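User: Show me a protein chain along with its predicted structure.
Assistant: Here is one chain, sequence first, then structure tokens.
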Amino acid sequence: MTEDTGIRKNETELEALAADVLEIARGRLLVNLRYMDVALTFHDREVYHGSFSTDGRVLYYDPVFVLRTYRESKEKLTRIYLHLVLHCVFCHPFIGHDADRRLWDLACDIATESVICELDLPCTRSDDDGRRRDMLRKIRRESGFLTAEKIYNALRKGDLSFADTDTVAKLEQLFMSDEHSAWYSDDVQ
């Protein structure tokens, strides 16, 4: 066996293991969210180098990222999977090209994480949930109902009194789970 053949075999095994782990995460969600069975099923999955992403049709995943995240925390991987699915349910990837990508991405992540916090599923809990809930209360007080559109408009207009440039970076760190490059172009491949 050549070195190249051995590398391809290892990559294939990693991909298969990562695909199995994604099925475990999906199954953990189905136990709690049976009514979302269709939404939780991506008919197409593609391996790419990054972390986790979707264009609304395909689930793009990096096998190494999936396996490392799962080893770190089953709940974290399950949460990221749900986060990605909720982006699709709420049609977040289908935005015009004239949007401020950074603010739209953040607004979508905040809206999605607010739903995950409200669901409060044991299989998606995180040590950061308390901090997220505190920030969500502040955002809700100033922008109203937590939809991506309302949050985006509040961020864009500067209506959130606490959201300066440094805070936007902190919000990204707190709420970001996946990559959104596939929403805007063919960057994923």
